[in-house]
Every structure is written in C-alpha cells, then in structure tokens.
Specification:
- The protein is about 20% helix and about 25% strand.
- It contains 5 helices and 12 strands.
- It is an alpha/beta fold.
- The strands form 3 sheets. The chain has a 6-stranded parallel β-sheet with strand order 1-12-7-4-2-3, covered by helices on one side. A 4-stranded mixed β-sheet has the order 8-5-6-9. It has a two-stranded antiparallel ribbon with strand order 10-11.
- The protein starts with a helix and ends with a strand.
Length: about 200
Amino acid sequence: MASAREEILQRIRDARVTPAPPVVRGYLAEGPGGVELFAERVADYRAVVHVVSNVPEALERLVGKRIVAPAGVPEEWLVDGVTWLREPLSIEELDGADGVLTGCAVAIADTGTIVLDGGEAQGRRALTLLPDYHLCVVRADQIAGSVPEALARLEPTRPLTFISGPSATSDIELNRVEGVHGPRTLEVLIVDYRG
C-alpha cells in the first residue's frame, strides 16, 4: 500500500511545469510632466515651492544661516553671508545646522516626488534627515512626467531616497505631526530658464 506521502511526491515528479506567459505591462512611459504640474503636486505635500531662473539670487535670503552644502554643490550656489558647513560633519554638527541645500537626481511631476541617489550635490542620506530644513534645487530638465520614466533615469543600485514633502506622520487619532522622521520644512527651487 503506497502511502499518501509517496503518492503526492510521485504526482509532483510527474507534473510538467510550464513557464508562465510573460506579463505585459502597459505602463505609461511618459506622463504629462512639466514644471507646472511638478510645482503643483509638490506644493500639495506642504512644500514651499519657487520657480526661479537664478539660483544664487534665490539663495541670498539664507544670509545668517548655517547651511550644510554637500560635495558637488555648484560654487555659484554658495552665496556670501551664509555659513556653509562642508563634509565630513558629525551627527551633532548636522543636527545643529539650520538646514541643508541639495540638488536631486530626478523629480516626478505626476506624484510631486523628489528622488535623491547620493550623487553630486546630494550627499549622504543623513544630510537630508537630520537638519530641520531641506532646500532642494530641481532643474526643469530633471523633472520626469511619470514614475516609470523617472525610474528609467535612475541607477537601481544607488541608495535611493524618495521625498514627497516634509517629513510627516499621523497618530491613531490622525493628528499630523511634521518633522519626526526628517525635515519639518521642505523648500523646493525649480530652476526654469524659460523666463
């Protein structure tokens, strides 16, 4: 008498596995995109948004602040009157800064999301998590219309951080608290040279 176990194992051995057919994904490769849509969507997350054509001029209001500037930040962004803190910085020094200025790898118009990958002008992840203020410069040509379009521009092996507004969380009673897991304030300068 064959045991139930042997019968089941024999059925498995006899089974013919056919590969599943490929899944065709009909993702929208390119979304409507654009500066206007990205500005609207990122503002929906309570970010402060400015569309500018001159980054140094926009940064002049930071006078008197202690701002972290990661490696690769363009020299023209380092305006006079600001104490620019440069890496390496300890956790205590980062926590004591007034804020951080970064660029980004890509931004997504459809979702209002900024993506950092630790590349030029972005620095290590702690730079954008410890200071209470994050000022991010996004060039118009870095704005992808959709998530699939943005992902195609990114290197998946890099440390990706997706930012959708200031850090916020809600408790069980849905009381919103900002700044618990990152900057309380996110300000975005969208650089659009069209005028």
